[in-house]
Amino acid sequence: MTKKPNPHRAGITPPKLAKESIPNHVAIVMDGNGRWAKERGLPRTAGHEAGEAALFDVIEGAIEIGVKEISAYAFSTENWRRSPEEVKFLMGFNRDVIRRRRDEMNALGVKVRWVGRPKRLWASVINELEEAEDLTAKNKVLTLNMCVNYGGRAEIVDAASALALDVKRGKVKADAITEKLFAKYLDQPTMSDVDLFLRSSGEMRTSNFLPWQSVYAEMVFMDVLWPDVDRRVLWRAIEEYAKRDRRFGKA
Ligand code: FPP
């Protein structure tokens, strides 16, 4: 049986909003772990560790308010440029978090999916992601896209390359390529368009996260470092989202 999310520790419940004001898909750049740790005289890795609770509280809050899909930017194709120690930590950390949280996500009815490039990614991380995908494949409450070794340009280039190969093999006609067909070649073809794009830490950029899927996303930048985030920050961002007038190019 699907478990209900634990209530927020202060007993706070989500704001009452009309169903159509709730974003279906929320993309999250979990930024500010390093600064959070530095402010406390701790190593950067302590900031990442503190970020785990933030992500899983946000997931529970997302279920409570009715969000159906979350994409979390856990490691980017550019994060390989960090120090070897931090890269090693982030790889091991991602692997351990996925293993540690798998059963809890399954109990909540969360479907976990990996989005990203296999190249360079540790085999042990891929194994954990695939185990979590298999275990949670039938769940329907919320889809959690774990974006590990993900890069927006890498995703588009890989899609273009696979599509070019299909054109060469005669499986696809070059003049029949549409946006819909192209999207089938992306890392996760069934991912829906992003409605709300959130970034913590006050930085205002998208950093190569889901460019194809976010062309009409509403951007909300939160002035709080990721380890200090909990579901209330998500709910505030959704209240802001609910006030936006989304026109999708129409007048
Ligand atoms: C940005 O903080 C965060 C990342 C590079 C991604 C890693 C995110 C986490 C570990 C959060 C929780 C994730 C999981 C999988 C539970 P930063 O290091 O860029 O911070 P800074 O901008 O303050 O230096």
Automatic annotation (TrEMBL):
InterPro entries: UPP_synth-like, UPP_synth-like_CS, UPP_synth-like_sf. One of its GO terms (molecular function) is manganese ion binding. PROSITE patterns: UPP_SYNTHASE. Its cofactor is Mg(2+). Keywords: Transferase. GO terms for cellular component: cytosol; plasma membrane. NCBIfam families: PRK14829.1, uppS. This is Unannotated protein. The lineage of its organism: unclassified sequences, metagenomes, ecological metagenomes.
